[in-house]
Design a protein that fits this description.
- By secondary structure, this protein is α/β, with parallel strands linked by helices.
- Helices cover 40% and strands 21% of the residues.
- The chain has a three-stranded mixed sheet with strand order 1-3-2. Strands 4-6-5 form a three-stranded mixed sheet, with helices on one face.
Length: 224
C-alpha cells in the first residue's frame, strides 16, 4: 500500500505510478515509429527507381564540362523507363571517366538530377631539383598533362614511374615529392620536388672462402 506522504492523495500516486509504467512502453513505440520513418523513404525510393518514365535529365554542379557531355556517359535517356541497374551503372561510368571527384544521381518526380563535383584541371607541371635527368626525359615518363583532369592517383603513379627511372640510372635513393598550388577557376599547378641522391655502383667484389673457384673463374668475372 502506498503511503500518502508529501501531501499527495493515494489516487494521485496511483496515477503517477501508472504513467511511470507506461513511459518505457511509449518510448518503445516512439523509437519504433522513428525507425520506420527513417527506413521507409529509402525503401520507397528504391521502388520508385523501377516505376515511371524519365522525363528530363538535369545536370547540376558542372562548371567546365557541358551537361551534354555528362549525359553522353549515361545508360538511359529521356523517355526510358526508370531502371535502378542502369542508374547504378551510369554512376560508376561517370566516376570511371576521372572527370569528377564526386557524383550523385537522384530522382525528383519524373526528372533525374545528376549532381557532380568536377576534379581540378592541371594548369602547369614543373620540376625542381633535377640535375642528372633532363626535364624532357622526366616528362616522357608522366601521364598527367596540362589541361587534363587532376587526380591524386595519377600523380602518385607518375611519381612511381619517375622513381623507377632514377633507379634505372643508378640512383636508388632518389625521392620525389609532389606539391600542389590551387588556382582560381578550379585549376591546380603541380610541382615535382626531386631529391636525386648519389649514384650507386659496385666499388669492388671480394671472394671469401671459395676453394672450388679457380683463378680462371675470377679473371672471367673481372673482365665482364
Amino acid at each position: 500500500m502506498l503511503p500518502a506522504s508529501n501531501g499527495l492523495p493515494v489516487k494521485n500516486k496511483l496515477l503517477s505510478l501508472t504513467a511511470l509504467c507506461r513511459a518505457p512502453f511509449l518510448a518503445s513505440l516512439s523509437l519504433a515509429a522513428a525507425f520506420h520513418t527513417i527506413t521507409a523513404p529509402a525503401a520507397l525510393a528504391q521502388e520508385d527507381l523501377h516505376e515511371g518514365t524519365v522525363r528530363t535529365i538535369i545536370v547540376e554542379g558542372n562548371q567546365r564540362i557541358e551537361a551534354r557531355t555528362v549525359q553522353s556517359y549515361l545508360l538511359f535517356q529521356p523517355g526510358d523507363r526508370f531502371n535502378a541497374e542502369r542508374i547504378d551503372l551510369s554512376l560508376k561510368t561517370l566516376f570511371a571517366t576521372g572527370l569528377f571527384a564526386d557524383v550523385s544521381i537522384d530522382r525528383r518526380g519524373d526528372d533525374v538530377v545528376i549532381q557532380v563535383v568536377e576534379n581540378p584541371v592541371v594548369n602547369r607541371i614543373t620540376f625542381e631539383g633535377n640535375k642528372a635527368l633532363k626535364e624532357d626525359k622526366l616528362r616522357e615518363e608522366i601521364q598527367i598533362a596540362a589541361r587534363t583532369p587532376f587526380t591524386a592517383a595519377r600523380v602518385s603513379a607518375d611519381v612511381n614511374r619517375m622513381v623507377e627511372l632514377y633507379r634505372r640510372s643508378g640512383r636508388f635513393s632518389a625521392r620525389i615529392r609532389p606539391e600542389y598550388k590551387t588556382l582560381s577557376q578550379n585549376r591546380v599547378d603541380v610541382v615535382f620536388v626531386i631529391e636525386e641522391g648519389p649514384t650507386s655502383g659496385v666499388r669492388g667484389i671480394n671472394f671469401i672462402a671459395c676453394p672450388s673457384c679457380s683463378r680462371q673463374n675470377f679473371d672471367v668475372i673481372k673482365t665482364m
